[in-house]
Amino acid sequence: MISVPLVRRLMKVKIRIRRSRFLGIAVVVGFLALVFSFLFMYFEGISFFNAFYWAVITMATIGYGDVTPLTEGGKVVAMIAAVAGISTFTALVSLLAESFISSSIRRMMGMHRVNFKMHYIVIGEGGSISSCVHELKSAIASGQAGRGPIVVLLPNEEEKKKLELPDDVEVLIGDPTNKETLHRAGVRDASHVILALEDDSKSVFVTLLVKNISKAKVFVEALKEESVELLKQAGADRVIISRSLAGRLLASAIFEPEAVDVIEDLTVSSRGYDITVMDVPEIWGITYHEAFRMLYQKGLFLIGYSKDSLRLMPELDEVIPEGARAIVIRSSVSTGE
Questions:
Q1: What is the DSSP string of 313-327?
Q2: First-to-last CA distance in the chain?
Q3: Residues 6 or more apart from 108 whose CB is under 8 A from it?
Q4: pLDDT digits (tens, 9 = 90+) for 10-50
Q5: pTM
Q6: What domains sit in the chain, N to C, each tagged with a CATH number?
């Protein structure tokens, strides 16, 4: 079985060869058009523009008939131009068609390159990828996250078939531990990179690669608690131990199922209620009680604020410091501010 890296190298060589062939044939077509133009102009005694127009139309085998040779020399040039045009223009058109088809095939295989800026890249495999993408799209639509395209990088075609992703999401196939793959995903210009790999050691390596290439913020799903420190040392901006959280929720479902329902509702922005962190300068310098009443009238339930550290349910007379971000619960259908 041919390896994926070998296929990539062969495709690169093929692209270089095709580009050089296309350039070569284009130069030949242009050169012949000029030669036939000068010859036709000489024999027929017409302007260069009309002669060049005739040469292009003749070589392209269109032949409108508005400019025709009247001399024997012009007719000889016309016959040669027609034969040369059939061969050169056919070669040029075939290369263009091949280029378009090859580009379409690369896109279908997920081997293409994106040219986005300030976009989101989700790398990994498994069901968490699909839920992550849908939640991210919902957050972007509601204004909770900055606008930008979403690129999903999967390890293989089989993984792509398992997931149901929105049509406007760019899906690439490749090994995230390969720098070329990350460059194809536009890591250098990305704003955020989310890693949900099935191997913590690979997550550490990919985090190091991303941080070496880009200034994007990196959020990583860790499978083991002992990997958290390593991932932070590698440069991860935030590490989430998803399986530990899932385990706690499963246990809580036994004795406090309503709490699990609340958590699920608040962490899904597309329905029910949602926890949102937002900048509200109007609450700076006033007490938590005053801020609560002000925001409650706007449909926002203030549960705390964040500045350097998280502060939940502060004292009613505690003054909210300048620069603090409000942590609120709001309806998912509310537009907010």
A1: S--TTPBPPTTPEEE
A2: 56
A3: none
A4: 455 455 545 567 777 888 888 899 999 999 999 999 999 99
A5: 0.64
A6: 4-109 (1.10.287.70), 120-245 (3.40.50.720), 272-331 (3.30.70.1450)
